[in-house]
Amino acid sequence: MTPTKTIYLAGPLFSEAEQDFNRKLRDILVKRGFSVFLPQEDSNDTTSMRHAQKQKHVFNKNCKAIDNSDIILAVLDGGSDVDSGTAWELGYAYAKGKVVLGLKTDFRTLGSEGTVNLMMEVSLDILVSNIDGLLKALEKYQ
Q: Within 13 Å of residue 20, how many CA atoms lie on the same side as its CB?
């Protein structure tokens, strides 16, 4: 039996809509047999943690989760500019030699310059525009 692959789900997580989308995506991936680290729930990244000056704890926990993940999935929605935390996680994962997949369901682009910032786009192994495309892309990693 093949061991379960772990996905670190990087993405914006500051609005109810973003959190709901992340949970929906996590649930779909779990049903497909992946283990998913969802920072909004798995790293204790809360307002109270930040106010208690425990950012270093959240940072370290997320870095360790990326280190221990097989695949990094970066949600790149937000128009032409990607969430700054997601951009950092993507770059860190790329530097670590991780498989990095991008999901951009937001149809706004940089025009003739590409879909997202070139530093992020070139760092990706695969960039897809919808969940069905993501699931198809993930088949080769299961």
A: 3
Give the strand pairing for 35-37 and 71-75: unpaired
Bridge partner residues of 101 (DSSP):
73, 126
pLDDT tens track for 52-63: 557 888 899 999
Looking up tokens 């993930």, which residue turns up?
138
Amino acid (one-letter) located at 39: P
Domains of the chain from N-terminus onward: 6-141 (3.40.50.450)
C-beta atoms surrounding 132 within 10 Å: 9
* Residues 82 and 117 sit within 8 Å (Cβ to Cβ): yes
Instruction: Say what the pTM is.
Output: 0.85
